[in-house]
Design brief:
The chain is of the alpha/beta class and 349 residues long. The protein has 14 helices and nine strands. Strands 1, 2, 3, 4, 5 and 6 form a six-stranded parallel beta sheet that branches. Helix 1 crosses helix 5 and helix 12 packs across helix 13. The radius of gyration is 19 Å and the shape is globular.
Amino acid sequence: MNAQPIIFDGHNDLLTRLWLSSAEDPVHDFIHASLPGHLDLKRCRKAGWMGGLFSIFLPPYAYVKNNHPEKLLNPSHSDFDPQQIVDICCAQLELAQQLQARSDGQIQICTSLDQIQACQQNQQLAIILHLEGAEFLAIKPDLLDIFYDAGLRSIGPLWNRKSIFGDGLNAPFPHSPDSGSGLTNQGKDLILACSEKNMLIDVSHMNERAFWDTLEIINQPIVATHSNAHALCQQARNLTDQQLAAIKQSNGMVGVNFDVAFLRADGQRNTQTSLDVIVDHLDYLIDHLGEDHVGFGSDFDGCLLPDDLSDVSQIYMLVERMQQRHFSDQLIEKVTSKNWFNVLNKIWK
């Protein structure tokens, strides 16, 4: 492979990072200058990173309080109030809309494969809006239709926190994915409502019982946008062989998470982690799912990366390592973009 392949990525937290930013105009800086973190438009273009699923995410209250207290109306509180939860998610949607509106056509919010492929041809950045954790929909359920009309096409109903939709997935290392109860009735109703809209349902933050509940109530490919193999790293968020078999049967997809804690056999947050560990997870998942059902789910701007993959501009080093490990050009193209295109097209119809 002579040229760097196009990269389409299953998960990033850029919108949350923009919301948290102390920059005077982080949207301008993303488009025209540079930002601290893993992504900005200049680096994305240099890397051939054409976009992917951009998460709208409510960060942990303690993190915001300790690192960005200016974002809180009352930092003495112990948690967000309901209106703050809604406001934070709406603010991140607005940031995505500003990225599109202020980019002079360089950035597009996409709701179909045709639009994504047009972005690829026109060298535009493709944003697919994804909701990671649905707490704000418990407060204002009508926002699902409003966000859908604005372009939301993917949802992970649960995050680490417990909500009315189900238990979060939060457990010490090492741990199995069996870490709590499954979906509540409200969680099942939400997933059905999203499935009826042909939205991607992300299982990456579901415990095992919620995972199996989801398989029982929807009839579409099962996707984990940013998860790894539990057999190689026993984090509760990684997928067991039984879960991988179910994803394969559904013609689903797994995007490999680049966070070192979800890659390493010891589960440590140690950036001195070889890129071979990422390729080990790719290999394992391909062995269990087939080469048409594995891609990247980096978690850029929301994870701790290996030293040799310090931001998106270094992703060529991972591709080179895949080549060294005898991944064919055809397989690399599938992993870096085509598999995502295919599964999104199946779900969005």
